[in-house]
Structure formats: C-alpha cells, structure tokens
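Hello again,

I reread your note about wanting to compare the complex against the isolated chains. To keep things tidy I'm splitting this into two emails, and this first one only covers the full assembly. Below are the input lines as submitted, including protein chains and any nucleic acid or small-molecule components. They are followed by the predicted structure of everything together. The single-chain runs will come separately.
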Amino acid sequence: MSRLELRHVRKAFGGLDVLADISLSVGAGEFVSILGPSGAGKSTLFQLLTGAEHGEGEMLFDGMPLDDHGRHFAFMPQRDALMPWRRILDNTTLGLEVQGVRRQVARARVVPLLAEFGLAGFERHFPAQLSGGMRQRAALLRTVVQERDMLLLDEPFGALDALTRAAMQRWLEQMWRHHRWTALLITHDVREAVFLSDRIYVLSARPARVLREITVPLPRPRDPTGAAAQQAGALEAEILDILLNPQPSKGHDHD
Amino acid sequence: MSVGLLLVAWELYANYSGIKPTILPAPSRVFEQATLNREALIDNAVPTIRATLIGFACSLGAAFALSMLVDFFQPLRRALFPVFIVSQTLPLVAIAPLVVLWFGFGLTPKIMLVALVTFFPMLVALVQGYEATEVEIGQMLRAMGAGRWRVFVLARLPSALPYFFAGLRISITYAVVGAIFAEYAGAAKGLGIYMLNAKNNFRPDLVLAAVGVSAALTLILFGLTALLQRLAMPWERIGRQPAGKGPGR
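Full-complex prediction:
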C-alpha cells in the first residue's frame, strides 16, 4: 500500500526545466531513495513536497492531494541545520515547539531517545561542541520526534567525512530496522542508496526523469562484509552504469 | 603598553623641548589639573553620558523597529536605504549647529545627533544579520509549519546577534563623539562645551583632561557591550571548547 504517490510531476524555474517527469511511490514502512547526479533537481522535489514550491502533476498522500503545509513530512535538510545558539536538547525539541507542544512535554518525549541516538550526556552541550556524526544524529532525532507520517532526508550525510559517513549509514540502517520509518532519502551516493534502501529511483541529469526503478533484493540487516556485500557491489556497478551512460533511446541530449 | 610609551615620550618632550604648557601641557600636568577640577569634569560628564545613553537607546529602538519592517517588507529597503545613506554623509560640523538652533540648548538636539550618527550602522548590522540566517534553517522551520513571524523569532533574530554586537561596538564609540559634538555646538553643560570653554581660556590641559574623560567613557561603554555579548551569546564562548567525554565519533 503506497502512502506517497507522485504522478508525472514537473517543475520549471523560469524557462529552465528542472523536473521533467517524475512518478514514484513510497509504501508504508518502506525506505526509498532518490539517486541522481548533483544539480539534478532532487532537492526541488522536496521543496514541492513541503509546499515551499509549486509544480505540475499529481502529488497524493494516502490517496489525498497534498496541501501546502507539508504536514505529513518531517524534513531533514542537507547539513544539520542545528541552531548554534540552542543547546542540543532544545535543538531536538524544535519541531515539537513549532507544533505548539509545551516545552516540558516536548522534552519528555525527546529525553528517552537520547541514548539510542548516542547523545546521552550531551543534551546541555551546544552544537559547536559536537562532532559531525553526533550533530547529524541530533538532526535526525529532531526530525523523527516530530512523529510525522514520513521522513524526508535530503543528503543527510553529504557533509561528513567518508569514514563517519559509513558509520552513520550503518547506524541509520540499524535504527530504521527498529523503527520502520516510512522514509524518502535523496542522495548522490550509490553505495549509500544500495545499503539503506528497499527501492531506488535513479534520476537523470536535469531536467530530471526517472531512468530506472530498482528493487534492492538484499536481506536485512544489511551486511557490509559478508556474501551479500558482493551482490550489493554488483548492484552498485549496475546503477553507476545507468547513471553514467543514460540510454540514448529516451532521446535526450545532455548539455 | 603602547599607550604607556606614548605618554612617556610626550612627558619627556613637553618637559625638555621648552614648549609652553599653554601649547602642549605634559601628561602629568593634565592629570594634576584633571584631579584639581574633577568636580567640574564630573559635573560636565553627567549630561554627556545622559545624552549618549538616551540618544543611543532611541537609535537602537528605532533601528530595531525599522529593521524588522524592512525584513518583512523587502521593497521598503530599496525605498528607505538611500535616505539613510544620505543621512550618513551629512557633515556633523554643519548639522550640529542647525539642530541646536532648531531645538535649543537642552537635551533634545543631543539625543537627535547621537541617534543620527548611530542609527544607520545599527540598522545595517541588524538587516545584514537577518540575511545571514542559514537558508537550511529557514527551509526546515517552514517545513515544520512555522510562519514568517516564528521563523523571524526562532531563526532570524538569533542569527543577527553577532552582527548586532559588532554594530553595537562601533556605534557606541560614535555615540560619545556625537554627543560631544552636539554639546560643542551649544549646550549649558557637557564635556563638549567644557572643552570649548577650556580652549577659549587657553587651557589645553583642561581640554585634554576632558578628552581623557571622554576616552575613558568610551572604553567603559565598549567594555560593557563586550560583557553584554558574553552574557547574551554563551554558545560563542562555550562552543569553542569541544566536548571531552562520552560516546564520540
């Protein structure tokens, strides 16, 4: 059963076509990735979903057209967007605060989750005192406590160093298995998409179209070392090939 | 240290070059005269401090109100900024006597002049500060369902704090100069008029004593803004010390 469904969504800024034709769906408890080259308009898609921009085509949530408020989504932007002047605890309760939840209630909801997010003992710290990985976990905690229907993750690990990123991907996969969030991840990292997702939509360069929809057959928990890793490697190579050699049959010139 | 060396050199030059104390008094003489005339100096410093603080408070209030207006209605910015930029090019020498002529020798013209010189730097600092808000934070807040006012209070206002304090440090020094200038153009009491009278009585030592008082005043106000910044922005100080314990990565 699909929760989010997009049908032939298009978006142009001025005369520039950014999204040419995007159709996709995300089921309940499914982790779906949108994988595409940088500047392909992946973030524009999230702007349409959260109501910051308007495009053409149909966007449905549980069968109903999306309104402007983006009430279904908890959005995690590129970089962590933690407020430097707020302590970690107050950063993580921000979304609840905006929803009008009383501070004490909001804190009571966040505090039990701190340990699981590796932030126990750091709630009184300022973001500048934390490492990149910890900041990202705080940003994810801020996103999930909003208890929206679906998570929108916009290249959440893009700004991290390679080692931290790999560690965060493993951690996120494990967290997802516990919580089974319905999640849509934007990334340009093929390995990340294969490691985390149930399904992947591969997008073309701008103007973006869906080149291929790929179901990731790998068992969970995802194992970065065992036999499944070879299968993952083959899949990654296949996706990379789609991205680097888009089929000319679609009749699109790259500039 | 460098100030100390300068004072020593000045002292030696004034004492041994044969220059008259009515032209260049030695620092020791300035200090001595300042101590002798301390009651008059304090008496004249009080109105200057009053004009500086009230004028600066008015300027801050106006700059804050207008910065918000400009932030919410961007076209206003294009309409208003040229006026303010011109207001900054007005030479104080010409404006100060006119303002005194129009508004008398009382407190009002001083407040106006202090506000005039400090208003624009504060406005620019605030408006730039709002603009410095991280784009992602704004996007995220709107996705959370925050309206413009919530975004302003939660993100834009705190983002402007470092700019605000940078502007404050510059403006507070202008404010003292502005007040003294206004008094110079005409006042019953104040450091400005005290300097003018001392000069007319061939007492450069007293002029310099008043200069010393105004310099001390500026430094105290400057120090206060720095202290205020430390109190208002604890994350700036604490944030520089990395966390040492617990689960890292």
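For quick reference: Chain B has one domain: 20-233.

B.
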